Amino acid sequence: MGTNSGGGPDNSRLNKDMARFAPGTVEPLDGDRVKLVLTRHYTAAPEAVWAMLTDPGRTELWWCRVRGQARTGSSFDLKWLNVKDEGHGIETDWWNGRVLAAEAPHLLEVSNAMHGTIRAELSPTPAGTRLVFTNTIDVPADVALMSLAGWHVHLDHLAEALNGKAVDWQRWWEDFHPCWEQVHAAYAGTGAGTNWRV
Q1: Structural domain of residue 132, as residue ranges?
Q2: pTM above 0.85?
Q3: Environment class of residue 142 by beta-carbon count within 10 Å: exposed (0-12), middle (13-18) or buried (19+)?
Q4: Is residue 53 part of a domain?
Q5: For each of the chain's 198 residues, which pLDDT tens digit applies?
Q6: Distance CA 128, CA 47 (A)
Q7: Number of domains into which the chain is organized
Q8: Per the domain annotation, does 58 fall within a domain?
């Protein structure tokens, strides 16, 4: 795992090319509800990707802190680690959730108080795993694009975590917020998911 001189994660070893994966899309549903969809191909097996989605010791490498179990009906609460407060990385409060479906290592679907319904569908490919990630949320269009950009960056972090590299959340704002801004600007400028490169 890439570490800094203090022994923790080192963001300088993480890829910051956010255009290496295809952009996601926003599908309008009803009212302010939208479905965000991102597809990724990883060189790891579905079991390895599943562990990154469900094992609390691994989710922190790329996504958030998880409290609960990947079992249908179980609680599955999330705590984001990349929030800025007066120039310092801090943790958010817990956002409560529940597992709607868990079929290892193929399907994880959870509800969340802040992030609606999050669904990850994993299928094996000759090269590893295809992940279809969807997030159904009830938010205005501008917030939907912010969320889409956020998931885009997190799923890039997942690719890095599968290669043994963790995010230093205390430095995320300095190191990766500019990447998020670039991705968000690309989504906002192209209508979420058509012919963009950052």
Answers
A1: 34-190
A2: yes
A3: exposed
A4: yes
A5: 444 445 567 787 777 878 888 899 999 999 889 999 999 999 999 999 999 999 999 999 999 999 999 999 999 999 998 865 555 445 568 999 999 999 999 999 999 999 999 999 999 999 999 999 999 999 998 899 999 999 999 999 999 999 999 999 988 989 899 999 999 999 988 654 433 333
A6: 10
A7: 1
A8: yes
- Residue 123 belongs to a domain with what CATH number? 3.30.530.20
Structure tokens at 5: 């001189």
Q: Which of 72, 95, 91, 66 is nearest to 81 (CA)?
A: 91
What is the distance between the alpha carbons of residues 78 and 198, in angstroms, rounded to a whole number? 29
Q: How far is 98 from 70, CA to CA, in rounded Å?
A: 9
Sign of the torsion formed by the C-alpha atoms of 43, 45, 51 and 57: negative
Cα separations (Å) of 150 from 7, 105, 113, 133, 165? Answer: 27, 24, 17, 13, 19
